[in-house]
Task: structure prediction
Amino acid sequence: MRNIKTPANIYLFLISVLGILFFTFSIKIPQYSQMDWIVIFAFSGSILLLNYYTVLIPPKGNSLSMDSSIYLASLFLFGLNTSLLVLFIHSIVFALFQRKIAWWKHVFNFSVYSLMINSAYYVFIYTNGITGPISVDNILSYLLSFCTYFALNLLLVGIYFILATSENIVNFFKEIIEETAATYIITLVLSLVLVILMKPDELFGLSLFTCIAFLLSLAFKQYFNLYKEISEKANKDTLTGLNNHGYFKEILEKEVAIAKETDQSLSVVILDIDDFKKFNDLYGHIQGDHLLQEFGAILKTESDAANFIVARYGGEEFSIIMPNTNRKTAYSFMNELRKKVNDTYYKGVERLPYGCLSFSSGIAECEKETYNISELLNKADQAMYAAKNQGKNLVQIYNGRSEYSVHHSLSLEKELEEAEFQLKIFLSKDVYTYRHSKRVYQYAVDFSRMLNLSVHERKTLILGALVHDIGKIEIPREILTKKGKLEPHEWELMKKHVTYGKEIISTNKKLEDLIPLVALHHERYDGNGYPYGLAGKSIPKLARILCVIDSFDAMTTERPYQKTKTFHEAIAELRNCSGKQFDPQFIEPFIAMIKECDHFGDNPKKELVGVNG
Result:
């Protein structure tokens, strides 16, 4: 503890002092018989053995140590003095055998157990628990003592990790309770089992319990290793031995969540072996498989050295996750890797166009407003195809302002036709929502011309504006068309239209880029929106733009449950809510666009030219 001034170290010091004081004032060593000492040392030896042979529990490899079962059994059978003496003897012996562990960790661990045992004992006594053989009359005391023991365990250890790692308190305790609740219940049951086993013969019961625990440890270890082996096979590509596509996406989900939560950089790469089909045609699929294995081995060696995660994405495509890496660093790494691959000879590659083994790759960096991993992978994929189109054997960083972002999409006209087809369902249910969507679409067309958006972003905004309320199909007609203010339960149902819309759009893979706009256009810049309460740049940019457009049309158009505003009033409302409901950077440009309309000055309620409805 070199720097005692850090919160974590101050906490360690205070708990260590408190635990030692509790131990010192609580321990009273009476005149034990020889048999009593044998039992005490037997308890200590059992704890040492069972701390070494823990029970591994799939899937995360959490371990269940039986030491707390023995401490609790000792507490219920013999009381506080014996239990503290067992703790002291075990701690001394354990520290001697584990001298590589820092001394302060031994002290802190001892102090935590001291506080837990003391607290559990006094709760047991004050709830009329009586030490000795197990009794049904003590059931409530057993439960309360047990709950106290493990509540303190969670609290004392949890606070240290929160101070040391700055984790979110609620998330940390929620996760640790979910992971350990079952093991805590098992521990209580086992402690009571041990009390029962020791009733006829103390040493025999303890020995039998230790043997059972030891055998369980061996059995679960074999089971865990088997589970681990099967899991690894399920997560690995059989040809290259790299992570497979499915497992890669699981890892990426976690890494993206960590990157957003910690504001760390994260880059993703998709790469494709150049002219692999030609190699297969020349030499056959067996040689092609060998080439994939060799290439995969190179990727793994280089990625492992940089602590990156590599996977076979499919066919001759591979992917790399780069935690704590920005796009520039990722670009340097991939260029070095590209050169290394070019210089690595593999039989037959001399007949390929470049005369060597090569690949094209695309890099995308995760940003705060990245909605999901599909968006991130789509960007990397687009950049990779750009590298292909520019002549192959290249590394390309995703640039949203480049034309390649729409190369592999359907034309805007065809996608608009599909979106319009879905939207026309409203004609039979709610004409207002249909017309509102058409107006928001036209606003999006006009506003996207003013903003510095890429071709892909413009297309996504326009399509998203057209179908943003598609989820209202699932809202009952009587709520959509109700006159007057909605009741609280009706409003809660109305808010679900964003979730329903997301589900509808998700069924059409061609429209998956629209999901953030459909799902998040009611999020607020200040974090008070729905459905997730996202704030600031955590809301994707296009969803923030759509929020402005959607709200303006909602304010200026007659609705069943809301009185309309004039354009002047709506503009004042936009400015008033800038930085609260709306992203400030889009308010003045949007107002400027509205004021440029020919019809604004004389009739502020009149709709824009070209808008249906």
In short: The beta strands are 55-57, 62-64, 266-273, 309-314, 317-323, 359-365, 395-397.
